[in-house]
Amino acid sequence: MDVVKVGVAGLGVVAQVVYLPLLARRRDLFRVSAVGDLDRGHAETIGRELGVPAYDDPAVMLDKGGFDALLLLTAGSHGPLVRAALDHGYWVLCEKPLAYSRRELRGIPGDARLMVAYMKQYDPATQRMLEALHEAGGARAVRHLDMTVLHPSEESQLLFARARASRPSSERLAPYLEADEESLTTALGTSSERLRRLYAQVILGSICHEMSLMRLFTGPPDTVDHVAVWPVDAFPPSVEVSGTLPGSGSAGGSGRYGLRWHYLPGYPTYNETVRLDHEHGSLELSFPSPYLLNAPTTLTVLSRVGTTERRTVYRDIAESFERQLVAFHRFVTQDEPPLTGLDGALKDIVTAQRIVRRYAEWAGIPIGGECVEESPREP
User: Fold this and answer.
1) In the chain, how many domains are there?
2) Which of 70, 98, 189, 248 is the most exposed place for a label (fewest CB within 10 A)?
3) How do residues 25-53 score in pLDDT, each as one tens digit?
């Protein structure tokens, strides 16, 4: 197979704990040829360790090149850097969120060399669940999709990692923070700091993974009927969302979804369950902490054989991040479409905007921007 030369932009925790170790593991597919981070000293340290050029300016890194594809692992919205990388002709694997606003992505063609990194879609248990759902009758057979996330602090999840912190200067960060704030205003049209943080850090920063799984199994939701956020004196808060699944109108099925995301800083360990109930049984995924490489995700299939309840449990230690990288390699070398490209990521941004709009309306917080302009129909 062709070895793809990659540049890695953003050398924070996910780069150090996940991507760089996996790229080293898969030298048969990738070679790191450049690294970049706004913290110059941090970038140079990792560059020396890898024996590659290091940059503290993404624009200079893209101009200098020396690689075929870019892994974009920076914080905040990635819209401007994605556009710049695509304009330079690079293939791009972009961590979530792709962007904060739809406007950031206007003009990017649907067939762009862009893959959005939703690793849970590539988990072997997720793919097996997708096969089991197809055997049960597909998305229209789903009566209810239930998702619950118990999210401890990032610090507690990463005690084992000893990752080195990236600490760019305020001067280096300023233009990117200003661009993020402008994008949030475009998306939300509000000055409410809590609402902006809820949208950017919680919904597009974490719940987007659950939205991507819903999109994979059933498609994006038809409606967002209810959103609750509590407690009012804590951040990140708990978030609850419910509504109807695609095809659940008068001429369709009767499927609904419920999503609960709880930030519990002292909780013992990350826990996520995704359950699909259909007429003939249930399918349930249980995800471990995403930072534990090769920790198994469990799929439990509940069905009936005659008068017997049959419970089948699958566990696979194949690493979802690694499978995602392999899929990116196939995208670059064989033009095999990714599970999420521009179109899928845009659908997730629309869903996120519908969620925050519903909450703002309930809470009496003024909201505007893309959330109310050209937004999909609501009941």
Assistant:
1) 1
2) 189
3) 999 999 999 999 999 999 999 999 999 99
